[in-house]
Every structure is written in structure tokens, then in C-alpha cells.
Amino acid sequence: MQEEKSVLRERAGIFAIYLVVLFINAFVDLGHKIIIQNTIFMIYGEQTQLILTAIVNAMILVPFILLFTLSGHLSDKFAKPHIMRWSAFAAVLITLAITYCYYQGAYKSAFGFTLLLATQSAIYSPAKYGYIRECLKKAGLSIGNAYVSAVTLTSILLGTVFFSYLFELYLGLKQYSTPEEILIHIAPVGWVLVGLSMVELLATFGVRFYATKFSEVKLSIQKLITLHYLMSNIRAIKGNQIIWFSIWGTAIFWGMSQNLVAVIPALAKANLGVTSPLMVNAMLALSVIGIMVGAYLSARKSINSVKVNNIYTGSTTITVCAILVPIVSALGFIPNSTALIIVSTLILLFGIGAGMMLVPLNALIQAHSAKDGLGNVLAGKNWIQNMAMIGLLLLTVLLAKSNVSSVYILYLNALIAVVGFTVVLKRLKAIL
Fold it and tell me: What is the pTM of this model?
């Protein structure tokens, strides 16, 4: 405990600047996504809404899958502050293009820019998360991850509410028939994205370079194309069973969470009588509050070490809530207002369970990774997580195309939680 506090005091200022970079990065990435999703919510019915919301969330994940090897290699090969800086510069250019699309009412182009914004985030990700151990050293991993989780999730929480508020503010009470009309009316919000991206870029110049060992491995284009690196990294990750099953624990949760993000808006509109994008996003934001609370509780209990019991408690809470959300939503005799309160409470508890579980799992992954290979491990973690997320999102699209309701899609989500967490917990219990 004293060692962690000493490390944090020594590097507190630099770490604080780093947290500012993380905050703005998540804020900007979310802002455009919220605008597109709210536009979908306002225009389309349940089935189309399910499909388009799942697609926009899948577009955010595709670059993390395709750039898995490249992003990990860059993070291990080059100084992480450099990667953060160039990625932040790219975000400035992309948000300028997005703002132009808003003013032109170019809905399809703005929709497509979701993919490009996600591409810079995919390159960014291993470097920004690998910097935690570089700045705080191994002693500060648990509490460092707790701070990073809290800041990132606070950004998501505030961003969700902030951009939804701006969206409804610019739209007013007028009814719109096309997504193009909506984008034109909310276009000034684009300058918020541009301004924040510029602040993020400036903040990256305050992130200090620390002496660290860089990978000397040269990237082969042939091996990249033939997926040699991908399979090699997967084998390396799988070789450490603690890392392997910890990653799958996080992957199951994030897959479930993406399913919820895609389905809850349609569920709220069809089953709970919700018509406001701000209200829908406020419901989803409760999960973020819950994750923050859970992460705090987990970090407080594991100041000196990783507490495995938190993984069990968290995963059980997630599973129970995942089962109850569709059940409550389908009970027609419960008034919409009551059902809305119950479902919102369950979403909050779902988040608390997630926070309890994710902090120790992420700490286990980083603590058992080789120092000069952490970037590849984190990139591999991102790849597996995003494969799980995009897999569930594609399944959501297929089910929605088959006219399966949002309630039954959530029943499937609950089944995945029961089976997935049972397997992961059983294996981790045997190893640890």
C-alpha cells in the first residue's frame, strides 16, 4: 500500500494529464455515436432501430479487430506518448469532416465516419492503456486501473447525458421525417467535437516519456496479411491460462453490454413507452454509474492485491440482472412507469457487478504479462473482446431481421451470461 501511494505521489501530475487525455478521447468518440444513435431512435421503428443501432456499434468494433496486430506492434515498438499524440491529431481532422457532414445533412457519410473515428481509437487503444504500467509501474496497477476505469466511465456518463441534451436542445419540439433533417438542425454540436479534439491534442504534449524497453521485432506485411501475427499472439495469450480466462471474462461482459446498448433503446420505446433519447441514454448511463461504484468498491478491497472474490460477486450480479431485465419488461400488468424504474435499477446493479469484476480481471491480465509484450497482450485482449461484441451485435441484427423482439434477444443475452461466466469462473478458480 505504501509503495503504491509513493509511486502515485511521484508521478501524480503526469498521470493526471494522462487521465485528461483519456477523458476527452472517450468523450469525443462517444459524442458522434450518440448523435447517430439518437437520430436512429427518433426516425425508425423497433426492428429497423435494432438493426441500425447494432450496425453502428459494430462499425466501431471492426477496426479493433482488423488492426489488432498493427496497433499492438506500434504500442510495443514506439513511445506510447507519440502514438497518443498522432492519434489525437487524426481525431481533430476526422471531427472537422464529421461536422461538415452534419451541416450538409449527409447522414450516410456521417454514419460512415463512425468507422474512421473508430479506426484512430483502435490504433490509440493499446498505447493509452499500456501507459498505465509505464507511468505507475507494477505496484500501482490495481489502483491505476481503478482510476482509469473511473475516468473513462465518468467521461462516458457525462458524454451520454451531455450530447443527448444538446441533441434534444437543438431539435426542439419539431417533428422530423428524415435523418438528414435532424443532422442539419444539430450541426453546431459538431464544433463541440472539434474543440474537444483540439484540447485533447494539446493535453498529449503534457504526457511524459519514460524509459522503457521497446520491441525490436520488425513487422512483416506478409505475416500480417496471412494472420501469422494474429495466431502467434493468440497462442501466446492462451499459453498463460490466467491471462486467457481473465480476457474471456471481460469479453463475455463487453459482448453482453453491446447487446444491451443495441437493444435497450428499442425495448424502452416498444415496451416501456419511452420517447425521449435523453431518457433512454440516461437509463444506459445508470450502468456507467454502477460500473464506477463497482470499480471503486473493488479497488478499495484490493489496494494491496487482486481480490478474486470480487470476480465471483460481480459476475453473479451481472447474470441475475441480465435475467431479470427481459422478465420485468415483458410483464404487461406492470405499469410502464413502474417497469421503467425497476429496469433502470437493474441496469444500475448490472453496472455495479461489472465494476466489481472488471478491475481484478484487468489487473490479473497486466500483472501476468511480460513488460515488453504488454502491448500485444492488450491488443489481443481488445481483439477477443471486440470479436465477442461484434459477434453478439451481428446475432442481434440477424434476430431483428427475423422479427425477433427485443425481449427475446435479451433472454439470449442472459443465457450467454449463465453459461459463459460459469465456465470462466470454474477455470479461474482452478488456476488461482
Answer: 0.78
